Amino acid sequence: MQTKQAKAYAAESSTAPLAPLQIARRQPGPTDVEIEILYCGVCHSDLHQVRNEWSEALQTVYPCVPGHEIVGKVSAVGADVKKFKVGDHAAVGCMVDSCRTCEHCQSGHEQYCLSFATFTYNSEDKHLQSHTLGGYSSSIVVDEAFTLKVPEGLDLAATAPLLCAGITTYSPLHHWKVGPGQKVGVVGLGGLGHMAVKFARALGAHVVLFTTSPSKKDDGLRLGAHEVVVSRDPEAMAQQTASFDFILDAVSADHDVNEYLRLLKLDGSLVLVGAPEKPMPVAAFNLLLPRRNFSGSAIGGIAETQEMLDFCAKHNIVADIELIPIQKINEAYDRLLKQDVKYRFVIDMATLQA
Ligand code: NAP
Ligand code: ZN
Ligand code: ZN
Fold it and tell me: For the whole prediction, is pTM greater than 0.85?
C-alpha cells in the first residue's frame, strides 16, 4: 500500500502531552476522498481516550492522534468517487467505515455495527495494518460512503463540532421524538450540552438547562434554554421533581444520575450521552416509581449525520466556538477539565504548518 506523509499531533502514552508527529496516510483508492483538514473540533472523548480513561471498554493504542470533528477541502478523489470533486468542502465524524452488511449497518445505524464500526481514531486500520489516526492532522483519506457534504452557507470552523457534538445530541432528540409541548432537560453546558440546548429549542420543546456553573446562566438562556437551574442548589432541583418528559445527560465527569431520574414524569426518559470513566449507581426506586426509563445513545448513523447537517443549514445552527492554534491543545485539555470552554474548542489546522 502506497502512503503519503502528513503532519499531526499525537500522544505517545496516557500521561504524555500531545506533540508533533509525522504520520502515514494511504493514497486514495477508487472510492476514497482525500481531505486537506481545515478545522478539527476538540471533543471531551479525545481527552478521555488520549488519557486512556475508557480502558475498561476500549484500550487506547498509542501513538494516539485524536480528532473526529473534521471539516476540510477535498484535495484528491479516487476514480469511482461520485459525491465529491477536488475543491469541495467535506466533513468526517467519528466513523470512517463499518461492515456495511449487518442489520444495524443496513438500517443506517453504522455506529452500532455488530462487528464494530471503524472509528476515526483508535480503531483497527484495515488499509495500513495499523490503527486509525484522527483529525489533529493535515489530511485524512476516507471512503466517500463515510464522508459528509458540508451544506453551503455554514461557517466552516463552527460546523466542525456538528460532526460529533451535533450528531450525538441530534440523534437522541429525534429518536425520543422531542418536540412541542414537552419539557426537556439538558445536563451540562459543554460542547454536547450547548448543541442539545440549541436543537431542543429548534424542535419546539420547553428547554431547561442544568449546570454546575452559575456563571453559565446567561449563556444558557442566550443559547436557547427557557430556564437555567444550578444543579448544586437542592431547593431549585426539588422544584423540578417529576416534571420532565426527557432529559439528556451530557456530563463528562462522575455525578449522581439519581438526581435527574427523580425529575422524570411517568414514562419519562433520562438518556446518557456523556461517558464518564466510572460506573454509575442507580437506585431501583428512582426507576420503578413512576415507571421511568434510563437509556444511552452513541453518535448517529451516516445518513442521519447528513440529515443533521442539512437541518443545521436550514435552521442556521452551528456551534459556539473558540478557535485555537494546535500549539495550544494541551492547554485546551486542561481548560476542558476546569469546565472552562465556550462552548467548543476548534483547532485551526493551518497552524499545524507553523
Ligand atoms: P465538555 O465540553 O467538557 O462538557 C462537559 C460538561 O459537563 C461541562 O461543561 C460541565 O457542564 C459538566 N461537568 C463537568 N464536570 C462536571 C462534574 N464534575 N459534575 C457535574 N458536571 C460536570 O465535554 P463534551 O465534549 O461535551 O462531552 C461530554 C461527554 O460526552 C464526555 O464524557 C464525552 O466523552 C461524551 N461523548 C459521548 C458521545 C456519545 O456518542 N455518546 C459523543 C461525544 C462525546 P456545567 O459547567 O454546565 O456543569
Ligand atoms: Zn466526540
Ligand atoms: Zn455492520
Answer: yes
